[in-house]
Amino acid sequence: MGDKVGDRHMSVRDSNRRAARPLSAAFVRTVREPGKYHDGGGLGLILRVEASGSRRWVQRIVVLGRRREIGLGSPPIVTLAAAREAALENKRTAQAGEDPLALRRHSRAFITFATAAEHAIAAKSGEFRSDKHLKQWRSTLDTYALPVLGSLPVGQVNTADVLRVLQPIWKEKTETASRLRGRIEAVLSWATAAGHREGENAARWKGNLSELLAKPRRIANTVHHPALASSDTSAWYAALQHRNGTAAQALEFLALTAARSGEVRGMTWAEVDFENSVWIVPAGRMKARREHRVPLTARARVLLERMSEAKEFGAHDKTSIVFAAPRGGMLSDMSISAVMKRMHEAEINAGRVGWIDRASGRPAVPHGLRSTFRDWAAELGYPRDMAEMALAHDVGSVVERAYRRSDMLERRRAMMSKWADFLEGDASNADVTQISSAGGR
């Protein structure tokens, strides 16, 4: 990678010999070789990559006759475009005879962490996957960060302050604490880019908090969603088909497609391609922010066709929700979970064990059906990458995903048809030809 970096983007030392080419967003995302990479364009913007792997933006600029270096935050939180915008504003300030650093110091006295958090959330509003994601951001900051940091000038927040927030919950609520750290880092990066603080980000993990806190993966207790045992799946599916209502139909469609609850509940008729038997989920509704194609098996297609016929507008009203709530709009996540809960309670009332996760003993939940599908696919020898694609998981490195053009749609269609047969109790699944995992890569 070093040779490619040298060809496409010069270090600051090399730029003395010839003008540097502008950096690209792709280069900023992937560069790992230590060095100083000049953006070109006359703004003095530099991407500094340290041996530790940390990266940060700096700007070299002449202020009142003196050469100065100004920190502008770190990628990926501060994007190339944002760094250029901040660098341009600094240069305008300097050319007007003012000191951008002095203006920063002056402004920092008036901006608290709480105010910076509001600005950072507003700036990132387009990145949130849903209102729920936005509420989670606010909730963790309100609950844990603001009581400690909220009234502090954002320019004065240091690593010790961040530790006062994280240490009390780092071991007991590791996943929440880890996400909170990233959100504090984002707020401080916004403050740096906006001119309200300078220097290293106090919430940065690598080479900073990583030396003071235990690695999350070493201390976190992974809690899996309770899943149906494979041996219970066909009996559960048969019981589900005796349930009426839109939520029950949504749960059945979720089981057939191994999709996430939010993807099914937000599905519109415009996403359904009956001609090619494909459900196309737009990038904006996907966790990975990429379009996802789901092959519709015969059973899934029949379910949708029946719903279309039963609706007054049906599939002709492209903007309407497929699995709409009784009063319109999306079903709640709890409505689908409630169907599964009532099915479990009915089993208990009949004197049976119920639909439980055999490992944990907890009642199975809708999201656990994805784990059941994944276990089934592994047991039958389907290629790992193909099963992961069916679940809309990232497969391979960033570079591999950039070059991959096939999503194995037709191969996944055959696999999902076998999965539908399995749900319906078709014993012929035992005769599925084993497929080498190596063959799917």
CATH class of the largest domain: Mainly Alpha
Radius of gyration: 26 Å
- By CATH's scheme, which homologous superfamily of the largest domain applies? Intergrase catalytic core
Helix content: 40-55%
Number of helices: 18
Instruction: Indicate the overall shape.
Output: elongated
Strand order of the largest sheet: 1-2-3-4
CATH architectural name of the largest domain:
Orthogonal Bundle
Stretches with pLDDT under 50, minimum 5 residues: 1-8, 10-19, 430-441
CATH topology of the largest domain: hpI Integrase, Chain A
Give the strand tally: 7
The end-to-end distance, rounded to whole angstroms, is 23 Å
Mind summarizing the main beta sheet? 4 strands, antiparallel
Mean pLDDT score? 85
What does this structure look like?
- By secondary structure, this protein is an alpha+beta fold.
- The protein has 3 domains: 2-98, Double Stranded RNA Binding Domain; 113-219, Tyrosine recombinase, N-terminal domain (DNA polymerase, domain 1, Orthogonal Bundle), CATH 1.10.150; 230-440, Orthogonal Bundle (hpI Integrase, Chain A), CATH 1.10.443.10.
- Helix content is 45%, strand content 8%.
- It contains 18 helices and 7 strands.
- It has helices spanning 2-8, 25-30, 80-95, 100-108, 113-123, 131-149, 159-166, 174-193, 216-219, 230-240, 246-257, 261-265, 298-310, 333-349, 368-379, 384-390, 398-403, 409-423, and strands at 35-38, 45-49, 55-63, 66-73, 272-273, 278-281, 292-295.
- The strands form 2 sheets. Strands 1-2-3-4 form a 4-stranded antiparallel β-sheet.
- The longest helix is centred in the middle third of the chain and has 20 residues, at 174-193.
- The chain is elongated and about 80 Å long.
- Residues 1-8, 10-19 and 430-441 have low confidence and may be disordered.
- Residues 223-416 form the Tyr recombinase domain.
- Keywords: DNA integration, DNA recombination, DNA-binding.
